[in-house]
Write a structure and sequence with these properties.
The protein is elongated and about 65 Å long. It has a six-stranded antiparallel beta barrel with strand order 1-2-3-6-5-4. By secondary structure, it is α+β, with helices and mostly antiparallel strands. 27% of the residues lie in helices and 34% in strands.
């Protein structure tokens, strides 16, 4: 998985700090899973995920043909995207100084590459769904648990989904947050985003 032709473009000032990568993926909680079928045609599905040690796990709807096209052990890519926003050059302080500014787009993204496998096993899927549910419910004042629902109802709702697992072999992370701009320009971007009703946090380097 070290093919440079299959790498995320990350300028040096956009490298996400290594300690921030797992918290970022955990906070987003979803990914676009991209695989290529035996016919060479790519498929992509948006799905909830958990990153556990070297494994990224999630599930797809059984009615989604994507899972049937996955070749077990084939290379796959999971794209985890954070907030993104258009950045107007009119927000930069340097626009008034010399006018040499252009529009851009700010965003954060993590690419997880590895080998993919499908799990069409009820117990595997139940365990994954239970952990995924606990991840999102535990911070709540009154967390809901899978065991709160009748057992037969849970069984009924597990049948329409299939598990998927990505063995993570490489991690690439990019945070394009105006780090290459001056402090004044970044402050201008934050004000511009706020004026448009966007929360600057996660979109511009403080």
């Amino acid at each position: 998985m070290s093919n440079p032709a299959a790498s995320l473009y990350v300028p040096r000032f956009n490298v996400m700090d290594a300690d921030d990568v797992r918290p970022f993926v955990r906070a987003v909680g979803t990914a676009q899973l991209v695989t290529v079928g035996a016919d060479g045609v790519p498929d992509a599905t948006f799905l909830p995920v958990l990153w556990e040690d070297e494994l990224l796990v999630g599930h797809l709807a059984r009615a989604n043909p994507h899972w049937r096209r996955i070749v077990d052990g084939a290379p796959a890519l999971a794209v985890v995207s954070g907030p993104d926003a258009y950045v107007s050059p009119s927000w930069y302080a340097t626009k008034a100084e010399h006018g040499r500014v252009v529009p851009t787009w700010n965003y954060s993204v993590v690419h997880l590459r590895g080998r993919v496998a499908v799990h069409d096993d009820p117990e595997w899927v139940r365990g994954m769904v239970t952990r995924l549910t606990d991840r999102h419910e535990q911070p709540r004042a009154e967390p809901w648990a899978v065991t709160d629902a009748p057992a037969d109802y849970v069984e009924k709702n597990l049948r329409p989904i299939v598990g998927v697992e990505l063995v993570v072999e490489s991690v690439e992370a990019k945070a394009k947050l105006s780090q290459n701009r001056s402090e004044e320009d970044r402050a201008g971007v934050a004000r511009g985003l706020a004026a448009e009703g966007r929360e600057p946090g996660g979109l511009v380097q403080p």
